[in-house]
Structures are given as C-alpha cells and as structure tokens.
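Subject: sequence -> structure tokens, single chain

Hey, anyone have a minute? Need the predicted structure for the following. Not urgent.
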Amino acid sequence: MPELPEVETTVRGLARYLDGERLARVETRRGDLRRPFPPDLVQVLTGATVTGLSRRAKYGLIHTDRSQTMVFHLGMSGRWRIDPDELGKHDHLVLETGSSHLLALCDPRRFGSVDLVPTDGLDSWAPFAAMGPEPLGPGLTAAYLKEVLAGRSAAIKLMLLDQRIVAGLGNIYVCEALFRAGISPVRAAGKVSAAALARLVPAIKAVLAEAIEAGGSTLRDYAQPDGELGYFSKQFDVYDREGQPCVRCGAPIRRIVQGGRSTWYCAGCQK
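Reply:
Had a minute. Here:
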C-alpha cells in the first residue's frame, strides 16, 4: 500500500499540473472504487478551480474554489497518471484541466476511494476526526508520545501503526524508524524510556523526509505521477531484509509477525 511518503510525492507531483487550474472536464469511468464515487462529483468539480493541494495521513486533498475538497486514497495499487498516451481499463477517474493536461486515477485493484468533503469540515470528517498528529508536523514530540503511550502494554510497533496515535505512519517506515532509534519492535509501548522516545521522534521524521526526497518506495505497483519509480527501497536498513546482515552490527535481520503484518528488525541493535 502506498504510504505517507508515496502520497506526499503524489500530491507534490499533481500540484505541478493542478494548482490554480480550472477543471474543464471530469469523468468517472465506472461507478465505484472501494465504495461508490460521490453522486455529485462530476457536477461539483467540473468548472471548479483548484486552489491548492495537501495531504492528511495517507490521503491526498485537492481543494477547490467551490468550498469542496476532493479527498482521494490510493488503496493498495492506486496511482495518478499524467497525460497518458491513452486511457486504460483501470483509469477510473479522469480530470482534464483548462490547459489540456489529462490526469487519470488508475487503480487496478479498486481498493482506493474518492470523497467530496466541505473544505471547512475536513477536520471533523469521520476518517480525520480521530487521527493523531502528523508525523512531520510539530505535534509529534517525545513528550506527546510519552503521554499517550503511558501504561500501554501493546508493542511499540503496533502503537505507532495506530492512526489515533500518529497519523499516516505505515509498516515500512515504522520498521526503519525503530531500527534507527535502537528500539525493539516488541517492547511494550509504555516501557519505552523517555530517552528512547527522544531518539524515535527525529528518526521518524528523518526516515520520512528521506523517503519523500527519494520519491517514495517502489513496491509492486507504486510509481510517481510522472511515471518515475521511487528509490527509497534501495536504502532500507531492515525492511524486507530477513537473513541479511545488519548494516551496523552484522547480525542477521529477523522477521516476525505482529498484528498480521511482518516486522523486520535487528535483535542485536534494537533493545
């Protein structure tokens, strides 16, 4: 699934073609993705001007001058294609700008979603209302984590994946951040020391920033809107490296399953 850096990269790529543009044509080429397209999507967006783009957690937001924001989620395999030579059977939503650029939302597995939300109601929209702070924002601090994790017996890895704790963190980048901070993924969240949390917060921010700079991680179907692949996967320290030597101590990287997801870590470096 595209994670926060992939969505951030996508939003930045779309902004080059959409920001300030009038949407001359909007077409839904099927009735639904994971759920139906909003019934008034075409009517609301056709003729609207894009006033900005942003991201919340793993959602992309396209704001318009009609006080409505189109919120998209890429699901498992979604990506935007810009000016494709021709539309394919998996291009389910098409936006054409006044300057004749064509942007197609391609989602072969159809686990993505598109919603229309009043712009002034975004914070209270159900998927966003219960989310924790953005990991790249000022709200994520060691003091905040110490407070919300106090007394929690669940593993720190699982707590960091809980969107109510931190918005937008996914499996890849949690594994990498915990390695950088030297924290075992199985340690009880409430037992992680203040000193370790002080290492963890900058590790989270750094690994996300580096992944965004690299264009995300190419896993299965992910590519940037311009078709370029993301290259952060070439920088993984632990993720998907079971049995390979740790880049720090040389011990073999281990894989376990937590909450139904694989976790990769170094037992020698992470305590």
